[in-house]
Amino acid sequence: MNGIDQLCPKCGLCCNGVLFADVELRKGDDAQRLAELGLSLEKKGHKKAFAQPCACFDRTLCRIYSERPKRCRTFECGLLKRVQSGELDADAALKLIAQAKRQVEKVCKLLRHVGSDDERLALSQRYRRAMGEPVDLSGGKASVELPGKLMTAYRDLMQTLQGGFLT
Questions:
Q1: Facing residues of 48 across strands?
Q2: Looking at the whole model, is its pTM more than 0.70?
């Protein structure tokens, strides 16, 4: 069993809006076909892109895997690369995936508490929106402390992602 078969179905962070806010199409991608398959394409400068979380991701697998865009075909996270090179074993990688997913859930829970529950947006967008809102000083100590807890949880997640997935 290769690293992709072992890790990717347990992870999905590259498709669910955690690692990326959008994916730009590459030369050779059939934008019309991808739109027919369910991707909502938007202009991004001179290119087309689709927002994350990906509409074709079902929480474990890609529904359009055999026809996915080039960027999706070629992306390999740092964790996968280290497993494929033998630098890291799959069990250690799966533990790091589980840790990252726990951290994502903690951030999402805090985001829901501050009213940012639009899960159609990438995690970074939800976080940015939530942190841009004024703090409700009349809501008591818990309400005042919530943005700090969110900031700390998001920072911890970003450190995990940078150290394990984006390098």
A1: 43
A2: yes
